[in-house]
Amino acid sequence: MPTHTASTHTARVLPLPRVALLPGDGIGHEVLAEGVRVLQLLAPDLELVSFDLGADRYLRDGTTLPDDVLEQLRTEFGAIFVGAFGDPRVPTSVHAKEILLGMRFRLDLYVNFRPIRLYHDRYGPLRGKGTEETNFVVFRENTEGMYTGIGGQFKRGTEDEIAIEQEVNTRKGVERILRAAFEWARANGKAKVCMSDKSNAMRHGHELWQRVFKLVAAEYPEIKASHLYVDVLAMRMVQAPESFEVVVTNNLFGDIITDLGAALAGGLGLAASANIHPGGVAMFEPVHGSAPDIAGQGIANPFAAILCTGMILDHLGRPALGRRVEDTIRRCLDQGQVTRELGGNLSTREAGDAVLNLLSH
Ligand code: NAD
Ligand code: IPM
Ligand code: MN
Predict the structure, then answer these.
(1) Could you tell me the pTM of the whole model?
(2) CA of 160 to the centre of ligand 3 (A)
(3) Is 192 a catalytic residue?
(4) Which of 44, 94, 138, 294 is the most buried (most CB within 10 A)?
């Protein structure tokens, strides 16, 4: 089992050496281009196939994620490499939901694996918390929770209107994400798994999490299972990130705490993630969005996207190359070869050049 992604090659056959590229919107294009250069350098044999899906396409012809494209992704690719989706011209973000959540749900990518890893002390915001202290992973449930869109509106636009958003927690969905967290902890020599919910206020769905967590934890007696309400988790992540090795939580809480975690690890420009269904195609994306505030300026940090390429290489059975990507990002950070939001002066392209230079020497 690889160490830095959650991929479990249960099928034993390696995933196909084909990567689907979905740059998406805004800085998605800019950062993905740098990731692609890294893939081309390190694994020239990989076949890279671009898909024109995103706001431009949606505005042009209404296409979001067609069934035949989804089938192609499922059957013909080992990995999907995504930039970001979201565009001010589509204020409802309907295309982003249908494409991004569409892939997560319809490919049943139930593990959203998001490392919170500070790669260099200089970029951590917390006094006394360096690379040793800030290093854990979040297992975010990725196929249900608050994200299913189940609910409705009644008397919309009137003074009496009602809007209901349902949270879905299935026994199967909860159990499999908890098990994935424990399995990864066991395979990677971790001693602790912390489950986070809000069962003090949400007494149906989160009571299910409590119960199933106890059952699953009992199967892993060597791993210390603990629980924190999500508000306290947020506080502890800032006060004592070293308390955590593996955190497992639901879809919405996982979304929120991984932006918080990104901030602890140097910002969104450094946070990579994997969306996994063990044995199937996996989707890799930076945790950040399309950043309309800086899109088109060539100043976005491509390191999160480049760290995704490390995860992709690992997932495709090339863990040594995956580690090289991580090491190279660490060296760039050490040398101050970084984009503006990290205090450097490199453009997106120059930051990509810095990585390629170090990789080729
Ligand atoms: P965002 O992550 O796009 O940006 C938040 C802030 O971080 C902005 O100030 C942005 O400039 C900065 N930032 C983000 N990535 C950066 C990078 N690589 N380098 C330097 N700075 C970076 O979040 P948002 O502004 O809330 O969302 C913008 C759009 O992206 C929305 O439509 C949102 O729904 C979408 N979104 C998509 C994804 C995804 O596709 N995975 C993730 C998050 C948000
Ligand atoms: C993320 C994003 C998405 C999410 C949005 C764009 C729907 O914030 O990947 O973290 O909430 O999952
Ligand atoms: Mn998010």
Answers:
(1) 0.96
(2) 31
(3) no
(4) 138
